[in-house]
Amino acid sequence: MHEMKPDTHHWRDLLAGDIPPWVMRFIKLTGKAINTHHMIKEHDSVLLSVSGGKDSLALALALSIRLKWLPITYTMRALMINWIEHPIDAGARALLIEYFAALNIPLTILDEPQYPTSFKGEFNCYLCSRNRRRLLFDYAAAHDCKLIATGHHLDDLVETTLLNLTSRANFSTMLPVQEFFGGKLHIIRPMIEVHEQTTRRLSEEYRLPAVKPVCPHDQTNIRSRLKPIVRELVRIDRDAREHIYNAHRFSYRIPRETEG
User: Fold this and answer.
1) What is the pTM of this model?
2) For every one of its 260 residues, what pLDDT tens digit does the chain have, with 9 covering 90 and above?
3) What is the DSSP code string of 58-111?
4) Does residue 202 contact residue 23 with C-beta atoms inside 8 Å?
5) How many angstroms from the chain centroid is the CA of residue 144?
6) Are 49 and 93 in contact (CB under 8 A)?
7) N or C: which end of the chain has fewer CB within 10 A?
8) What angle do CA 36, 196, 137 make, to 5 degrees?
9) Which CATH superfamily is domain 11-153+176-213 in?
10) Domain extents in the chain
11) 73 — alpha (psi -120 to 50), left (phi > 0) or beta?
12) Helices (H), the chain
């Protein structure tokens, strides 16, 4: 799964302080979104929503390294929901546990049914997402976590915008900070300014123990069909993602992310 390549390093190199400029920019860009949108304050308890994929692992890495530099302290824990119908294997499970232990973020892997009886035989991406969110909210409440951090990035925001615009006639998207239950809980998205290609590069070059759980709808859902459209928009204008982000008129405009 994670064969050694001549041009790759290891994620432990980053924890040891050997951080190249492009990874440093990624960490600082994540921190910038946190600061601008006031996502985390001192003594907060943050629950990381972990899918096991490259994005949530990249977020955990950035938050763990960044916390070492801050003059404030907050706590983090991570939750991965492992669907019993499509479970990750024991080897992948062990690698994830090792990774989060090295980051000093306690990880819980919760084995749950993807198709609960309440679905009454129905299943789609919306129901799956709602089921996952319910489990996250319940876990957060049980552990007094007022913040849930997700690995959504700029490409996710753009895809959501296009989906809502073309399918629902609504110009809306995921928010950097989203409030629930009258402010008792917030979902935060610290990587909302980060390009997906950055998390992909990080995962490949530093051999993050990413695992992609089986999803029967992975290649047929509408998001997978929007990805090539986003790539085509970027070929027309390299700043297309940033233009769409800024069109939502969040609290500030973002510049184009520099690669390399």
Assistant:
1) 0.90
2) 444 454 679 999 999 999 999 999 999 999 999 999 999 999 999 999 999 999 999 999 999 999 999 998 999 999 999 999 889 999 999 999 999 999 999 999 999 988 766 666 676 667 778 889 999 999 999 999 999 999 999 999 999 999 999 999 999 999 999 999 999 999 999 999 999 999 999 999 999 999 976 676 665 678 888 999 999 999 999 999 999 999 998 865 556 665 44
3) HHHHHHHHHHHH-SS--EEEEEEEEETTSPPPHHHHHHHHHHHHHHT--EEEEE
4) yes
5) 21
6) no
7) C
8) 65
9) HUPs (3.40.50.620)
10) 11-153+176-213
11) beta
12) 11-15, 21-36, 54-69, 90-103, 125-142, 154-168, 196-205, 222-236, 240-247
Tally the residues of the chain: 260
Phi, psi of 46 (to 5 degrees): -110, 130
Q: And the tokens for 43? A: 């003594």
Burial class (CB in 10 A: 0-12, 13-18, 19+), 208: buried
* 156 vs 54: CA distance, rounded Å: 13
Question: What are the two backbone dihedrals, phi and then psi, of residue 13, each rounded to the nearest 5 degrees?
Answer: -60, -40
Residues 6 or more apart whose Cβ sits within 8 Å of residue 158 = 230, 240, 241, 244, 245
Neighbours of 248 (CB within 10 A): 14
- The letter for the amino acid at 39 is M
* C-alpha to C-alpha distance for 219 and 176, rounded to whole angstroms: 26
Give CA separation, 152 vs 137, 160, 192, 252, in Å: 17, 11, 6, 19
Q: Give, in order, the Cα–Cα distances in Å from 89 to each of 12, 139, 211.
A: 23, 23, 9
